[in-house]
Amino acid sequence: MIAGLFRRAGRRRETIRTLHQRIGEAARRPGLYTVLGVPDTVEGRFEALSLHVILVLRRLGQLPPPAADVAQDLVDSVFMQLDASLRELGIGDMGVPKRIKKLGASFYARAGSYGAALDAGDRAGLAAALARNVLDGADAAAAGPLAAYVEAAASDLAAQDLDGLLAEGPRFPEPTGAADESGDHR
Question: What is the pTM of this model?
Answer without folding.
Answer: 0.89
